[in-house]
Structures are given as C-alpha cells and as structure tokens.
Amino acid sequence: MREPPLSNLLEDEEHHHLIIDLCKGLASLQRYWEAMEVINLTLKLASNTLSVEKEGELRSLGAQIAYNIMDPTHGWDYARHVVNQHPYSFAAWNCYYKVISRLENRYSKHNKFLHGMRVKHKDSIAPMIISGHQLTMISQHQAAAREYLEAYKLMPDNPLINLCVGTALINLALGFRLQNKHQCLLQGLAFLYNNIQLSEHSQEALYNIARAYHHLGLVTLAASYYEKVLAIHEKDYPIPKLPNENHDVTDNLKQDYCDLRREAAYNLHLIYKRSGALDLARQVLKDHCKM
C-alpha cells in the first residue's frame, strides 16, 4: 500500500502552527473557502497522526471560519465538534448558532443533534435557548415557552431568558386556542417587568415593554413607555465578535447604533397618527428621526 506524501508533516509542532497561521492569514484576507480547504485537507491527510489537541484546534478554527462562508454547511461538523467538547460553554454555542442560523430551518441533522444534546446535557442552558428560538421562528410559541422556562429554572436572574419567556407567553396568549389568555398575558408581562429590573431600567428593556403593549393594542401604556425611551440616550457598545469573524459589518455601523430613540419615536408617531393627533406625530418625527 502506497504511503501518503508528507505523512509525518504535522507531527512537528512547528509545522502544525504553520498550518494554523496560514488558515488565520487566509481568513484575515477573507479567503475563507481556501482556509476551509486547507483545514479539510489537513484533517483528511493526517487523520491518523494528529493528536486530539491538534485535531480539536483545527476543528475549532474551522467552526470559527465557517460562518463567514456563503454556504456554511461544510462548517457544521466543525461547529458540532466544538459544542461536543464544551457543552456548557456559551462561547462554543454562540459559534455553533452563528453557523446554524444561516442554514435552512429544515436542516435535519441540526435538529437531531440539538435534541441529542438536550437529552445528554439536561442542565445545559444554551441548547434550551436555541431550541426556543427555533420554535419561535416557526410560531410554535407553547413549545418555545416550555424551553425558555426550563432555562429560567436554571438561571432565573438572566435578563435575556426573562425577555424570551415574556415574549413567548405573550405570543402564546394572542393565539386562538388558549383558554386562560389573560393569565398567560399577565405572566408574560411579569417576565418583561423582571427583565426591566434585571437590566436596571435600561433603554432596551423599556422599549421591549413598550413594544409589547403596542402589540397588544394598549396604546396608552405603550406611549408612556416610548416616552421613557425617548428620555434616555444610550451610548454605543462594542458588538461581540468571534475570532476570525468578518469585521466589516460591525466596523461600518453608523453612530448611535445602540440607541433606540428613533425606533421608539417612529412607533410613537404611529400611535399619535392613528389617534388623530397629526401635529404631535409630525413633531415626534421632527425631533427624533432626523437624517
């Protein structure tokens, strides 16, 4: 049997780092397909000689690069490997979800894998939240609320989880088949108010409760919270980026991209306009929605 060329290449630590640096360099030049091809070929040619640590490093790098490719299907195996190695790491699941979010919802392997991780690691919060998001996307709000509530039991003081539970219960209450709609609605609003407390009355939390009231048709309450949002100037925060992620999208954002006053003003103007207060509607747009 013919021996493959350079079979012992990656046994040398220096050669391994050379491959890693090459892939990172290609990724920095946005030549993601070439970087992925190098990783794929390396894993294929040296599958029997790579140590577990070196193979894991290559697969982790492949997962980080995968979400920059137009078709991230090839990176799904790498992202799956990362969360298998670190099932309780939010960073690992964040990397995984970035890849999965760009795949079609009917990607059966993802659904089976996510279910398997939920069964195997019952106290891992990230797959619960991801499952809830996936169910919300297909309007399965009761099942989504169940997933979010499981996460809430493990981390009740997390603002995001409280927000997710609240929105899921409100969407569920707006369904046609629910008998205890008012109770479900009040429970959803209670979680949104928990989110306000946990977020220390942040602009985003106030906007979320305003948007919920607006969605429910309680425009008087919505208007009062939109006005609270308009009274706060939110400073910009750096958007978290994973290693080797394309920075162009976040680096080119305009100033005040974290400020929700324009969105609140536009929604408030819709309330005023519908109530017949056209002068107030124009004034809100003039004050807060300038180019």
UniProtKB/TrEMBL annotation:
Entries under SUPFAM superfamilies matching the protein: TPR-like
Repeat TPR: residue ranges?
A: 203-236
Q: Which UniProt keywords apply?
A: TPR repeat
Gene3D superfamilies, A to Z: Tetratricopeptide repeat domain
Gene Ontology CC: transcription factor TFIIIC complex
Entry keyword annotation includes Phosphoprotein: no
Gene Ontology process terms (BP): transcription by RNA polymerase III
Q: What's this protein's name?
A: General transcription factor 3C polypeptide 3 like
